[in-house]
## 1
Amino acid sequence: MKKFIDNPATLLETSLQGFAKAHADIVELHTEPNFVCRKQRKKGRVALISGGGSGHEPLHAGFVGYGMLDAACPGQIFTSPTPDQMLAAAEAVDGGAGVLFIVKNYAGDVMNFEMAAEMLVGPNASVLVNDDVSLPKDHPIGRRGVAGTVIVEKIVGAAAEQGYDLAACKSLGDRVVGATASMGIALSSCTVPALGRPTFEIAEDEIEIGVGIHGERGRETGKLVTASEMVEQIAGHIQEELNPGAGQAVLLHVNGFGATPLVELHLVYELAWQYWQKRGLNIQRALVGSFTTSLDMAGCSLTLTLLDEEMLRLWDAPVNTAALRWGC
Amino acid sequence: MKKFIDNPATLLETSLQGFAKAHADIVELHTEPNFVCRKQRKKGRVALISGGGSGHEPLHAGFVGYGMLDAACPGQIFTSPTPDQMLAAAEAVDGGAGVLFIVKNYAGDVMNFEMAAEMLVGPNASVLVNDDVSLPKDHPIGRRGVAGTVIVEKIVGAAAEQGYDLAACKSLGDRVVGATASMGIALSSCTVPALGRPTFEIAEDEIEIGVGIHGERGRETGKLVTASEMVEQIAGHIQEELNPGAGQAVLLHVNGFGATPLVELHLVYELAWQYWQKRGLNIQRALVGSFTTSLDMAGCSLTLTLLDEEMLRLWDAPVNTAALRWGC
């Protein structure tokens, strides 16, 4: 295993310390239990909390700040955070208008966030993100939450900042989830530090189609083809799922899994843009970069969100976090 | 070679199209010859132009925008741009107060930017960036320009925005270069698309110490050690070079080479922070992320800039580019 690491057991803690120092103008790190929250907090608005296993950076701590999350609870690498983290975070950031949890659909995350929600005194609700269309809709544990999570956190974060109440934030979050679909392709596995070797083997001429973000294999192994063919393939599944009408306004997000350079991600964006432009969509907003990663996996995903005017306005609203920043 | 790519011959062009579409609010792409410039231009200020081989994204096109570059000239992957690109860019963005070229010290870049400067009608000057301390000061072609380039472009970009004249921008740029030192370590090689295989072989227990950003070997091959030992090693060379006094204000930049995840970069930041904190430095600003990359190379570099009050104020000034954005 080749990584910048001293010891898998202390990687997360040291990395969080570095993150908090590098962004000390925006966030505060609390330990025992671990959570990252905004430095400046405001009373009277709904507080947004997310979290999940680490290894997906900048998700979620990189999205804590004005106009997005109030706190993030990082678990160990690819491991759910525990309910005490969520409770401590909720206690720190609850401004009296309730807490909204944004949860990616993984069994451990769902269970622990549910437990926290039950223990929490005071109004709270949860939005479950399940945007990964590589699994069938009727999959026994449901579809996974992947790169669409960022879109949900941005749009609902802006709403909370603007004073939407808890019910309105929850309902908006559900609406964004319903309007969002993602699918990814991996060119390589990733190496979980505690394991010390790639989580799966893949040949030089193979790709994994329909991967999640935890180094698991995809729904199928395919042959390495051109970027255009890869884009056609995953865009096709998203298109089929959302079935957008001609002229539909959309946000197109190309997300790198951690080891794919920007020069490739922008190429993929161009190809995906052409794919949907041909189908008459109105591609109004773009997000290209590595936002929901899977450690050092090479690969990327496409996410499409069907935008209405409210969602577009909230997407454009000011945001000031470590990883997403505009308008302020 | 496993990449999102259709054809090495069209990769750059397609990627630039995607980049320009994804950031159409900030930049415009011109072709034949290729350059990226700001969408909104203002007369009467010094225009900053940089450029170099592609494969280092987001450098340089990702830094075109308010408060930073006016234009960037991307060459083919790891290949210098040609003088006609720089001339066309200069013609497009010259606002009547002269043009400042920011050039990384590579033979081809230097030669072509010099040629452009000679052909350009109107006042112009150049700042040569040579922050890589892995080569000796008296190296025959001088030290390479690496991740410190971003610091130069940001600080001088803010000065140009604030109305500094050409001589003042040039002198400030030289001062930032003199106050900046970088050194990097690679854990892997990178694969240039036209070549189709890694540019060097490296064993599972080896690292390259003192690498540039073009997939060349480092000044020495070492054994894989802990992140702390790697940081000590490269930070030591930087410390020796700059020899900062106790209490010196600095900006500490950890730059990923393209395939190193943020969780590792933040760990490296924490270790480098500890290294310089122990030596009494006042670490006032941080920049952590993959800003000057080497395609899909795994690795990172440290850059330290000794800040004075003017440089700090200019670093903090508003910037609105694809890859660096704050205060606006």
Note: Residues 90 and 129 of chain B are 19 Å apart (CA to CA).
## 2
Amino acid sequence: MRGPEISSARLLDWVADLGRIGALPGGGVCRLALTDTDRAGRDWLVAQMEALGLTVSIDAIGNIWGLRKGLVEGAPVMMGSHIDTVATGGLYDGALGVLAGLEVIAALNEAGITTHTPLAVAAFTNEEGARFAPDMMGSGVYMGALDREEMLATVATDGSAVFGEELDRIGYHGGDTPVTPAAYLELHIEQGPVLEREGVRVGAVTGVQGISWTEYTIKGQSNHAGTTPMALRHDAGVVAAKIALAAHEIAADLGPPQVATVGVFELSPALVNVVPEKARLTVDLRNTDNELLKQAEARLQSAAEDAATAHGCTLARRSLARFDPVAFAPQVIDRVEAAATARQLSVKRMPSGAGHDAQMFAPACPTAMIFVPSKDGLSHNINEHTEAQDLVAGAQVLLDVVLDLAGGKS
Amino acid sequence: MRGPEISSARLLDWVADLGRIGALPGGGVCRLALTDTDRAGRDWLVAQMEALGLTVSIDAIGNIWGLRKGLVEGAPVMMGSHIDTVATGGLYDGALGVLAGLEVIAALNEAGITTHTPLAVAAFTNEEGARFAPDMMGSGVYMGALDREEMLATVATDGSAVFGEELDRIGYHGGDTPVTPAAYLELHIEQGPVLEREGVRVGAVTGVQGISWTEYTIKGQSNHAGTTPMALRHDAGVVAAKIALAAHEIAADLGPPQVATVGVFELSPALVNVVPEKARLTVDLRNTDNELLKQAEARLQSAAEDAATAHGCTLARRSLARFDPVAFAPQVIDRVEAAATARQLSVKRMPSGAGHDAQMFAPACPTAMIFVPSKDGLSHNINEHTEAQDLVAGAQVLLDVVLDLAGGKS
């Protein structure tokens, strides 16, 4: 007896139903936070929760959660994610974690199971940060990492709206008080290529990589590309190119899971025949080990200073973002791994390279995530895709781990 | 007896007089080709030529030249340059060569010298190419390297005017027939830092560097900076950075006069946390030796292909410009060197890194250039500056070489 089973038909119907709200003509969806389509998605979600018998709460930042009573009172085991998307989002990023939570409740209802500990399904406001920065806003406020009043005053990235006013407008400025869960679980698509590439069905996520974003600005001297001998130049662009390659060499040298990305690289005045006076580049470094991440940062800085000195340029460094790695709870990771194995699903321990609502819960309660494969590693893209069998497998592992954590038998 | 002397007062007055036409509030001048200020500069120049007794001609592309009879008939020894400027130009780029030509005529008039060969002072239309491309348009048409009708049909870079119509409008669409000179000499500011840095007064220019402009476009794959392991990336930006550094390594390896400049370097989508899908960069390679320039181009292409292959990216190459090096006439270079030495001016043989009208004459007649120092190597800049004593020294060398070539005694 392996316990209750997920209904693949019901889960896939829900994915399709929510996916129709904000559907884009060419596929994918646009449900930017606090827009009318986000409201429509929220209304749909609340209706589903109520139909499943959950008690719906909404807090002052617009987070929605539905509670299912357990045999005892107390903090619930929470399943959560988000239903907002980027402007050209897919059907699964965020939505899967919320809809699988609904499906877990539905499967338990159908099997007549009441868990020992209460359960909750949550959808957090503005995880994407696409319309209002920062991202993970709802879960950050929920767990106290972000200031609620400050977030309510946030102006949209296009300057067109204020967060709190939009929240009022769509009718989701609630007053319920968040509760710290007994445990937190989030099913999510990987948004990377690893599971698909290795043919593994389930990722037991060990934590979220630490992130270090640095902007370097190099100032040299603008000179004529023909009349200035190499030895008399102060070429800001060469310094920038050396920093970019140093970042990649550091990542190669430290090995996985260290990654390094130079996403922005600009020269000024940007003319074919003028030695660049100024260069600006960004370096995104990530590692699950904070000591290794610090080592990568220090080595990058040293390489940047050496390059600037060698070319007689000045170097300015600005930190754009810095988050320590988040480690998930070993006992929950173990249970994810065990649950997948018990269902004969291949499983791999892996870090998350992207940020998720789960990281806001990790400091306060036992937390972990379950990943399922993303076709071609694509996400934040209308072609984002996860095979139906993988959606179902992930939801089944979620159900099994929730039952394990909350205590309950059929 | 060292022959006739330049009048520094007269030369500097002329520099100041022409510099007032199109003067910018903060210094420098703007006499873009075929504008009203260019016309005012031309009118002033023609008046000076006529006052010096020169016979003024204007051809169908607007070139102006003033002829001074010699003891015999025939092709003149020509001194020339241009009086158009870039939008934020200096007082010397181009103007010096024309005004020094006037001063040579004035000094000869004053000394009562008639040369054996006739002399000419020329100002060529649109050398800068700032308002209408290409540059060196007037001298190119004069010597048959560019097609006159095609040039007359050129539309301004801002789309606002047609070359031929502007030439008519300012009244410089002449009908005189260009004559190939017996020899061509051009005094010009260096527009680079070499003479000043080495404390040398005069450059005996050996030729103009060959120029190779290449644009590389690299296509990789856009990926999430956190979720995509290094080994699974196709990072167009890394390929571009490797090409940029390869260009500099090739220049370092070949040594002077090889130079390499990466002036444009763009990534797309240019987001901090997205692996660049596309990169575009330009490489400007220059050398006086065409075989070495070809070698540099071949090595760059090979490095670019290797980098693209290593990262699984595609590479597209587009040649934006390719000019063979121009060699000036050894016997004229020798005379420039000898004249400077005779005047106790330190002199250095050097290539020109920038293009000049002189290169249009080099294939057809004995040609050379004389360089004088540019403060901080600045040009195409309102702070362009050459010390008065250097302006005078350059004009004196021009006078001495012209007398040497044209034959004439006081």
Note: Chain B has a mean pLDDT of 96.
